[in-house]
Amino acid sequence: PSADLLFYAHIVQPLRHANELVGDLYLGAKRKDEAVAYFEREAKHPEALGARQKLFELLLEKRDFAAARRIADDPAIGPRLTPANRVMLAVGERRWTEVLEPLLAMQKEYLQPMPTMLAGLAGLVWLIIAFQAIQPPRLICFRTFVPLLAVAAGIVSIVPTLFTVLFEEEMWNLKATGDFFDDFVFYVIGVGPREEICKLLCFVPFVPILLLRRSRLEMLMVAGCVGLGFAIEENVQYFANAGPAIAFGRFLTANFLHLAATGIIGLAFCDWVLSPLKKFLPFIGKTLAVIFAHGCY
Question: What is the DSSP letter of 110?
Fold first, then answer.
């Protein structure tokens, strides 16, 4: 950084972004300790969201959790931390019980009008298709009420899924790298299993009553509606973060893929519960096949 820039960064009331720019320059020169010091100075400004994000990412990259906790406890910075900052810190310190609250706050931030409307519209179309498939005998009955509950359960299933994402990244270093073959393994071994297992767990509460009713159509479609709920909530996140290119593809494909995937696994699970010995291998085979297809998708 030039002398003028350092001057503007060190005056009594530093010029906005001056300290952040000094930090960026030191970070580009791989002088991370100096970068941390200037990002911390900038982070005290109420609107310095970018500097706080860089500061936390840098400290967590260095595994300097003590410094990150000190900054989080700073009354000038701590109250202004984003939910994402708090999630990153809790995960880095492996305080898993402290992850849930900021994780839920992150989910609320995704509920922006346009992404929510797009995801809701696509989900509504496939919910109508699900109602047509399950063939309710009248407007208000088991086959109209329970699928709505299943969609709600699917929306909830995104929370344990995200928790699993954070756990796998921190404990197993399981994350996308940008390399095709590494990412193929990551999506098939990491993403597919965690999402399908979390959706299946949220389908399990519906299983006892479905087994009593003995309708394989209901088993298939109620499980599918859990997958649909998951797809709707996941789409909100993708639409909010990834932009139109990703949104278009997911708008046309994600809902029916999750509906079909969870429907297949859910029906296979119910068959296994009804016939534990005979249907165990088919359940495992179908689950693995769906997980593989999901990872490829």
Answer: T
Amino acid found at 62: K
Written as six digits, the tokens of 190 are 């990491």
> Which parts of the chain register pLDDT below 50?
none
- What per-residue confidence (pLDDT) applies to 207? 98
Q: Which residue type occupies 121?
A: L
Residue 75's pLDDT is 83
Instruction: Name the phi and psi angles at 138, rounded to 5.
Output: -150, 175
Residue 99 · residue 91 · CB < 8 Å: yes
At 265 the pLDDT is 98
Q: Could you tell me if 103 and 162 are in contact, meaning their C-beta atoms sit under 8 angstroms apart?
A: yes
Using the Cα atoms of residue 264, residue 269, residue 274 and residue 280 in order, give the sign of their dihedral: positive
DSSP state of 98: G
Give SS3 for 283: helix
C-alpha dihedral sign at 208, 212, 217, 221: negative
- Contacts of 270 by beta carbon, 8 Å cutoff, 6+ apart: 207, 210, 211, 216, 219, 223
Query: Distance between CA atoms of 229 and 157, rounded to whole angstroms?
Result: 8
Percentages helix, strand, coil for the chain (3-state, rounded to 5) are 80, 0, 20
Decide if 9 contacts 22 (C-beta within 8 A): yes
Taking CA atoms, 34 is separated from 26, 27, 60, 189, in Å, by 6, 8, 15, 39
Contact 219, 133 (CB under 8 A): no
Q: How many helices (H) and strands (E) does the chain have?
A: 16, 0
Q: Which residues fall within 8 angstroms of residue 100, CB to CB, at 6 or more apart?
A: 159, 163
C-alpha span between 53 and 39 (Å, rounded):
9
Question: Distance between CA 205 and CA 270 in Å, rounded?
Answer: 12
Contact 80, 46 (CB under 8 A): yes
User: Which CA distances in Å does 7 have to 13, 16, 18?
Assistant: 11, 12, 9
- Cβ atoms within 10 Å of 270's Cβ, excluding its own: 25
